[in-house]
């Protein structure tokens, strides 16, 4: 089984390759997805990493509050997305 990890407070300059390399130190990374603004295309400062369960737990433990680009990362297990209510 795999686990999705939320990675927040990323520096604006971070890219998927940097995040992959950081998490790869703790196990096999299955995927990395950094979130960008739909309108501007600029990074929003967070993303998701998918890893195997046991390796994901070790990565969360090791990288929560890790300093990257002068910012303390927030790393925890991603929560399922809740459906959004459309605005009219």
TrEMBL record:
GO terms for molecular function: RNA binding. SMART domains: RRM. Residues 3-80 form the RRM domain. Pfam families: RRM_1. Coiled coil: none annotated. CDD domains: RRM2_NsCP33_like (cd21608). PROSITE patterns: RRM (PS50102). InterPro entries: Nucleotide-bd_a/b_plait_sf, RBD_domain_sf, RRM2_NsCP33-like, RRM_dom, SLIRP/GR-RBP-like. Keywords: RNA-binding. This is Uncharacterized RNA-binding protein. It comes from Candidatus Desulfovibrio trichonymphae.
